[in-house]
Write a structure and sequence with these properties.
single chain; 495 residues; alpha+beta; Cytochrome p450; five-stranded mixed beta sheet; three-stranded mixed beta sheet; 20 helices; 48% helix; binds protoporphyrin IX containing FE; metal-binding; signal; iron ion binding
Length: 495
């Protein structure tokens, strides 16, 4: 029997196992990033229901790519939730990532010229210079320590990507992470990451969902978010003062500053908030993906060697054309983004009643088969991007294994009709009108940095056990500390 019904009877984990106050959400929080959702997805399929914390209406966890695509395409019906938006506002301000509706459309159109393929190509020199400073720093540390060193790679990668967004986005020099602003950004972000992993971090979004006005109540994690914002706001003020009297090429800052004078343009606080938004989302995301990809390469010496061989075929400065030709590099990057997306989970709420169509029918607890289902206004969805990209029912038994070759072998990928339509059939950059505006920049800088360091340096795994948590982006965790990823680094042997 195929019919349309609402989702009251959807499958899902037993209610008796949910906490009275925290629902199933505490269990999800305590696991590694989307670990529990992945397990439930294999137990109950690509649509299931969980009990929400603080007596909120049940949450639908949705991994069906067609229904997810429908949600991401319709940004007027499905918006970011009341528990998610205040947190974005608090960390990076009310910029593009926060805006909804017409305001979002306006800001998006305004800022898009900074991210065209041509604009990104022009960033190659700045990116290469920053990547070379990163390579020099690591090489010096290796040499100073007698030929090899074990270090936490996280701050070094962050400094490199912060340097890049500073230069290409704002014409600002963070001096390889040494400037006061860079140090303050790193320290406040690190604090936020670690507080976010505690119970206070769990509490913040669910309390906000229940009582959206609670921002004024001194929750520790909310204060830590505010700290990051204060620091980037201070930087933004400085950039506006410096930038207004110098001629710069078209970058994020110059676009923002030109709009100020237009009638109906952005207000000063929207400009400041967008500088904060791009400073943070423009560097922590790429750095995170790079860190985990380096870990995968450290764990897979053969893949690392194959990548190095490919890179060494090209000498000297790295151009856009050169990186575009490196096929294995491209496969390594896709695999890194598939297994470790910086945003492992998205939350959306339905603003009105709707009907979502599924790519594969599901069976309700009562035995009905649904090919589509009715959504009620106010329904909250969790879309676990990371679980979708590592779902063994779609990606096969080795779904969780780092295997760049799958991108290069004919027929090794799942059939297209089982995958989302986003970049490379992944959802790492989301999809639809809110797909990551910086994805071209991210892909190019990712490749330039990886090429630059992998040609001279060798990365090996250490004995530390690295796990993954969402706080607020995907973080490596060692012994309970977030933002820690030890790697063993030495000079790579010449071929
Ligand atoms: C590997 C690196 C990156 C990944 C995996 C990534 C991923 C994402 C994802 C999944 C979203 C959608 C978030 C949501 O809907 O809640 C997003 C949005 C966004 N990203 Fe990225 N991102 C990356 C790099 C960057 C870079 C380098 C920039 C800027 C230079 C950037 C700026 C933004 C902004 C401003 C948005 C909001 C776009 C909108 O809502 O219209 N991201 N990103």
């Amino acid at each position: 029997l195929v019919r349309q019904d609402d989702i009251g009877d959807a499958p899902g984990p037993a209610k008796k196992n949910a906490s009275w106050v925290w629902g199933h959400e505490l269990e999800v929080f305590r696991g590694q990033a989307v670990e529990v959702y992945s397990k439930w997805m294999s137990d109950y399929g690509s649509l299931f229901k969980i009990r929400a914390a603080l007596f909120h209406r049940d949450i639908i966890v949705l991994g069906d790519h067609a229904a997810v695509q429908q949600i991401l395409a319709d940004t007027l019906t499905y918006m970011k939730t009341p528990s998610f938006r205040p947190i974005i506002a608090n960390i990076i301000g009310k910029g593009l990532l926060w805006a909804e509706g017409e305001e979002h459309g306006y800001q998006r159109r305004l800022l898009s010229p900074a991210f065209t393929p041509e604009s990104v190509m022009e960033m190659a020199n700045d990116m290469s210079e920053c990547a070379e400073m990163f390579e020099d720093t690591l090489t010096n540390l290796v040499l100073m320590n007698g030929g090899s060193v074990t270090l936490n790679i996280v701050p070094y990668t962050s400094h490199c990507t912060l340097d890049i967004i500073g230069r290409v986005g704002f014409g600002h020099d963070f001096r390889n992470g040494k400037s006061t602003e860079a140090q303050e950004i790193t320290a406040s972000w690190n604090n936020l990451v670690n507080i976010g992993m505690t119970f206070a971090g769990f509490l913040a979004p669910i309390v906000l969902r229940a009582f959206p006005l609670i921002m004024s109540i001194p929750l520790k994690s909310i204060q830590a978010q505010g700290e990051v914002r204060e620091i980037t706001r201070k930087l933004a003020q400085k950039l506006i003062e410096d930038g207004s009297h110098s001629e710069k090429r078209k970058n994020i800052l110059s676009i923002l500053l030109t709009t100020k004078s237009d009638s109906g343009g952005l207000s000063k606080s929207q400009i400041i908030d967008n500088i904060s938004t791009f400073t943070m989302s423009g560097h922590e995301t790429t750095a995170g993906t790079l860190n985990f990809t380096l870990l995968e390469l450290a764990r897979n010496p053969q893949a690392q060697e194959r990548l190095r061989e490919e890179v060494r075929q090209y000498g000297g400065a790295i151009s856009y054309d050169q990186v575009s030709k490196m096929e294995y590099l491209d496969a390594v990057m896709k695999e890194g983004l598939r297994l470790h997306p910086a945003f492992p989970l998205a939350e959306r709420v339905a603003m009105k009643d709707d009907v979502l169509t599924l790519s594969k029918p599901i069976k309700t607890k009562g035995g009905q088969i649904l090919t589509s289902f009715r959504v009620k206004k106010g329904q909250v969805f969790h879309i676990p991007y990371m679980a979708m990209q590592t779902n063994p029912n779609v990606w096969g038994e080795n779904a969780a294994v780092f295997k760049p070759e799958r991108w290069l072998t004919p027929c090794a990928l799942p059939p297209r009709n089982e995958l989302p339509r986003g970049w490379s059939n992944l959802v790492a950059f989301s999809d639809g009108p809110r797909t990551c505006i910086g994805y071209r920049l991210a892909l190019f800088e990712f490749k330039i940095i990886l090429v630059t360091i992998i040609r001279t340096l060798e990365f090996r795994e250490t004995d530390y056990k690295v796990t993954q948590k969402i706080s607020p982006t995907l973080q490596p965790v060692v012994d309970g500390r977030g933002g820690v990823l030890p790697l063993h680094i030495s000079i790579a042997p010449q071929a």
